[in-house]
Each structure stands twice: as structure tokens, then as C-alpha cells.
Specification:
By secondary structure, this protein is an all-alpha fold. It has helices spanning about 1-35, 55-60, 65-95, 105-115, 120-130, 140-165, 165-175, 180-205, 210-215, 225-235, 240-279.
């Protein structure tokens, strides 16, 4: 019986591994194909490749419409990351450390945009804008991106804030520090990993946003995702594959680089702590 159960368990793990592998192949094979075909020398994107070439990246860098869309997405994403990080830190600190009327309602309202599908939220806000006769502007587009990213930043910083013991802040307050000084000198340094993670996630959400940007962008303004969609309406060329590769590098590379830098800084800090204690 024991041998039979072991064999069943082994086959179950093998089957699970095989299914997992198939899922990963299904998810990442199109991405790999996009990256590979961006180096195809032929103007017709497809296999077999006729040669290796960087010409499509050169044409991409000379495409003023793509560069304008990239600049637009970049500054919107940076602004969204900065604003949502500030809002997320303050909101999570208030929700974790204080008790006040309407706390549960505020928590629900903050998380609500993450629970509603982006398309429904985009259409709903577009209908509201039309109802009040408000033209679509860059300010509304940025506010929409902030609205979509805030819940994720709040969730990340709130989870970290719960793990920070209140006694550290109380010790600083008992020694005469103001509440703001206690937050700046004690709480915020301990919260830095969550702050960095939230900022990177907000940047990625904003830079890679498609549905909301389609509904809220002003006329004549394109972001990177909407630029890709407009190019797909004309034709599918290796230039689009090159643009997709750039999007993949930005949305995946920046969080990875940020995570590696954060790990490096944490390791350096841990190495310096024994030296300071020895002194």
C-alpha cells in the first residue's frame, strides 16, 4: 500500500509539473516569438527568419510618433509612481496606526478600483466625463492612472506597516521626538522596501496601461500601448515586434533592477551593522 501511494504521489507530481510547464510555455512562447522576430531581417514577420538585423530598432528610434508616445508614457508613469507612493504611505499609516470614524469605509473605497475591471471602470468614468461635459485632458488621464495604481501601493505598504512594531515609535515619542520626526526617522526607513516595491509596481501599471488610456486620453495623444494598437491597425511588421520588445524590457526590467538594487542595499546595510556595533 505504501509503495503504491508513493508511486501515485510521484506520478501526481510529474503530472503537475508537466501541466505547469505547458502553462508557462503557453504564456511565454508568444513573448519569446515577439522578441526573436524583432531581429528578423525580412519585413514580413514570421518563421523561418531570413537573417539577423537591427534595422527595425533603428526605424523605431527614427519614428517620431513612437518617441512621443514613449515620452508621454514615461512622464505619466513617473508622476503616477511618485503621487501614488506618497498617497499609499500616508493612507496605510493612517489605516494601521489610528482608529477614526469611517475607517472601514475609507479602506473599502481605496481598494475598490482594484476590484472593478479596468474596462468597466474606464467606460464608467468616460460616461461621467461626457455627462458633466468635461473634455478629456492630460490631467484627467494622469488622475485615472493614479486611481488605478493607488490600491496596489496601499496594499503593499499596509502589509509592511502591520509588521512594524508600534513600540519603536512609542520609544521615540517617549524620548521627546515629535510624531512627524518619529515617522521620518523610525517608521519610514523600515517601510522603504514596501515604498520601493509600491513605486515600481505603480510605474509598471501606469506605463503598461491600455484600456484606461484608450478611454481617458485626449484627442491626438498616444501612449505606448495605444501607439502599438494604432500601429497594429495598419499592419503587423517587425517594427511592432521591436516596439513590443522595448515595452517588455521596460515593464520587466525596471522592477527587476529595482529589486536587485534594493537587495544590494539591504546586504550592504547588514554588513555595516556589525562594524558599527564593534566600534
Amino acid at each position: 500500500m505504501t509503495v503504491g501511494r508513493r508511486k501515485e504521489g510521484t506520478w501526481a507530481w510529474r503530472l503537475t509539473g508537466f501541466v505547469t510547464l505547458c502553462v508557462y510555455i503557453f504564456m511565454f512562447a508568444p513573448i519569446a516569438a515577439t522578441v526573436i522576430l524583432s531581429f528578423n531581417a525580412s519585413m514580413f514577420g514570421g518563421f523561418p527568419m531570413t537573417g539577423f538585423s537591427l534595422q527595425w530598432y533603428g526605424k523605431l528610434m527614427a519614428n517620431e510618433a513612437v518617441l512621443a508616445a514613449f515620452r508621454t508614457s514615461l512622464w505619466i508613469a513617473v508622476l503616477t509612481a511618485v503621487v501614488t507612493t506618497a498617497i499609499g504611505v500616508v493612507t496605510s499609516f493612517a489605516l494601521v496606526r489610528f482608529e477614526f470614524p469611517g475607517k472601514q469605509t475609507l479602506s473599502t473605497l481605496v481598494i475598490l478600483p482594484a476590484l472593478v475591471p479596468e474596462t468597466i471602470l474606464g467606460v464608467g468614468l468616460l460616461v461621467l466625463i461626457k455627462a458633466v461635459d468635461q473634455p478629456r485632458t492630460m490631467l484627467l488621464l494622469v488622475l485615472g492612472h493614479i486611481l488605478l495604481a493607488v490600491p496596489y501601493v496601499v496594499l503593499i505598504t499596509q502589509a509592511r506597516m502591520v509588521g512594524i512594531r508600534r513600540v519603536y515609535e512609542e520609544a521615540a515619542l517617549s524620548l521627546g521626538a515629535s510624531r512627524f520626526s518619529s515617522f521620518r526617522e523610525i517608521t519610514l526607513p523600515l517601510l522603504i522596501p514596501a515604498v520601493v516595491a509600491g513605486a515600481l509596481l505603480a510605474f509598471t501599471i501606469s506605463f503598461d496601461n491600455t484600456s484606461a488610456s484608450l478611454f481617458w486620453r485626449p484627442a491626438g495623444v498616444e501612449t505606448m500601448p495605444t501607439q502599438i494598437l494604432s500601429m497594429l491597425k495598419i499592419s503587423i511588421s517587425p517594427e511592432i515586434n521591436a516596439l513590443g520588445t522595448v515595452m517588455i524590457l521596460v515593464t520587466v526590467g525596471i522592477p527587476l533592477i529595482g529589486g536587485l538594487l534594493l537587495q544590494s542595499l539591504t546586504r550592504l546595510k547588514r554588513r555595516d551593522e556589525p562594524k558599527e556595533e564593534a566600534r
